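Record type: monomer structure entry
Structure origin: computed from sequence
Chain ID: A
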Amino acid sequence: MSDRVRIKICGVTRAEDVVAAAAAGADAVGFVCHPGSARWVPPAQLAALASRLPAFVTPVLLFVNAAPEAVHAAIAAVPHALLQFHGDETEAECRSYQRPYVRALRIGEGVRLLDCEREFASAAALLADAPVPGYGGGGVAFDWSRVPARSLRRKPLVLAGGLNAGNVGAAIAQVQPHAVDVSSGVESAKGVKDAALIRGFIAAVRAADRAS
């Protein structure tokens, strides 16, 4: 691939981890706005965390079946954020906020990425995740062969699900995603990122870039 693979560090809950991710070269940092997650960031903390990001590093707000008022409140706290939907939101619900958004999909039986591209035509990108209980951050990889070849895809694809420094190179070589998304693979505990693991993950992605 000629394009550099973009990198999102997701499930960040601490200011020092925001700083570490940006310093290591992350393109985006994700904040979970779902109270059911161990990586939940309360609304009152969103603005302070996002303010630690330098220019050109994108904040991403992750929602799971959130009430519209909760989404609007998070957008008000981080006005320049990209939105990411992980629940049962319809295409109409996702686009109703009139903001660029990523639609997450759990790639299992009966889920066809190309059909989802058509269903979520307004999405800026699709995110392929593992079909695990809950909504992301499970640390489990899925069968990458379920992802159609890059030549067949029409939308940017973000690859997630059980990625770490040890397997992300193979994932990039096989799937050829636009971006990769990591959470548990760079953690010492849920919601606690490890700066060394972040640097190692990003180094592995850059090595995959050079090999492509």
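Annotation 1: The chain has one domain: 6-211.
Annotation 2: The beta strands are 6-9, 28-32, 58-63, 82-85, 101-106, 125-129, 157-159, 179-182, 187-189, 192-193.
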